[in-house]
Design brief:
The protein is mostly beta strands. The protein contains 5 helices and 19 strands. The termini are far apart. The relative contact order is 0.15.
């Protein structure tokens, strides 16, 4: 069954109301059910499949400010370039009669997390590559750091995305997702790449790991994120940067052939296996 819509006065709601269902375990996708004229906005490359009579339209930005002038649309959409995202987004609208389904897939193994912005005061801050899709009317912008430490050393956490409005959004967490509810004054220290997102009341900063041995031999980076409550934090066990780094580290070097997977002989094992390339 699809998740029920959130009961709310439709006269006070700006974003479209959508139903959804999440399928899968490690490689998930979300199926969204649209009533006639309802729409959903998504990042490029997340679309999976849809029913007939759903109209696809490429727009500047996220579609939350389509009543503004062209200059306002360009300025709003242009900020997305700073996060490394496309200037354009895609809106899918049910132009037919009756309910229609459309699905969006996660980009790599992990979990899709529904975020009801009405539960978080209308704003949620997430990593720049965590956003998957949202009900049309949700604003997808950028959250600039106001602290020097974040800007200089924040790495993946320097420029965050912010989701604003009163609708449903969907974000993606790599690996396994952990949800931490922090009490006032409670502090959680996290690898900067492992942050998926957090609520607007979280105080977020960057701290130096400290210690010569930790710095030189720790292998965990020089800085970590310090998140102070009250608020809710979502953490992922396998950020894409870490996954990509490990894949590249195990990839054969140019001209070196295979790596001798799982063998204590390594390259010698390749020779015995008939791989005589040097």
């Amino acid at each position: 069954m699809f998740q029920d819509k959130i009961p709310q006065n439709p006269n006070n709601r700006n974003a479209h109301e959508i139903d959804y269902k999440i399928f899968g375990e490690e490689m998930q996708f979300v199926e969204i059910e649209l009533d006639p004229q309802e729409g959903v906005v998504a990042e490029a490359g997340t679309f999976m499949m849809m029913d007939d009579n759903i109209k696809m339209n490429t727009i500047l930005g996220d579609g939350s400010n389509q009543e503004t002038g062209l200059l306002g649309k360009i300025f709003s959409a242009g900020k997305r370039i700073l996060t490394g995202e496309s200037l354009f987004m895609t809106v899918f609208t049910n132009d037919g009669f009756g309910k229609k389904q459309i699905s969006f897939a996660s980009p790599y193994p992990g979990k899709i997390v529904p975020i009801d912005l009405t539960e978080f005061g209308g704003k949620f801050i997430c990593q720049k590559d965590a956003f998957l899709c949202a009900a049309k009317g949700v604003s997808i912008g950028i959250e600039f750091s106001k602290k020097l430490g974040r800007g200089l050393f924040g790495g993946e956490g320097f420029i965050m995305q912010k989701l604003e409005g009163d609708g449903l959004s969907f974000i993606h967490a790599g690996g396994t997702m952990a949800k931490k509810v922090l009490q006032p004054g409670e502090v959680l220290k996290v690898d900067t790449g492992c942050i998926v997102g957090f609520t607007q009341d979280i105080d977020y900063d960057i701290e130096f790991v400290g210690g010569i041995k930790n710095t030189v031999f720790g292998g965990e980076g020089l800085f970590f994120a310090s998140l102070k409550g009250p608020g809710t934090v979502y953490v992922q066990s396998l950020p894409f940067s870490r996954l990509a780094g490990r894949v590249l580290a195990m990839a054969p070097r140019t001209g070196s052939g295979k790596r001798g997977e799982g063998s204590v002989l390594g390259g010698i094992g390749d020779l015995l296996d008939g791989d005589n390339r040097f």
